[in-house]
């Protein structure tokens, strides 16, 4: 279900393909066409070319649970508190190109959550590295201590 302010039946209704095994159905995307801001003269006042694309990550049945958790954990300003990802696309002059741009940015965001981050294994510093660190601190201390000597003029 694609709720549009200005519905155009000529637009193809296909699923949004993220990878070969993951795609987002058209029914989960909500698009709204609005007037863009900025320069553009008369055209900007007459034509609704900007696209607001919304995708509810928190309620999407097409995303695996692990991917959903990784995407919701990201601190992205486009992600609302309810887990809805909102993209405003108005870089281009045409509605179709802005629509493609918004979808490409959504695919890029979802694809960024596909890679599982490697868990960090905590390690302890070696004895040699501790010794090197303390030797460096001692040398720096000696240099500073040498600067503060009382100098007499003869």
UniProtKB/TrEMBL annotation:
Positions of region (Disordered): 122-154
Pfam family, one: RF-1
Domain Prokaryotic-type class I peptide chain release factors per the UniProt entry, residue ranges: 35-51
Record-linked InterPro entries: Pep_chain_release_fac_I
Entry keyword annotation includes Nucleus: no
Bias-annotated ranges (Basic and acidic residues): 132-145
Enzyme class: hydrolase
Keywords: Hydrolase
Annotated SUPFAM superfamilies: Peptidyl-tRNA hydrolase domain-like
Protein name, UniProt field: Peptidyl-tRNA hydrolase ArfB
Listed GO MF terms: peptidyl-tRNA hydrolase activity
Spans through the membrane: none
EC number: 3.1.1.29
Coiled-coil segments: none
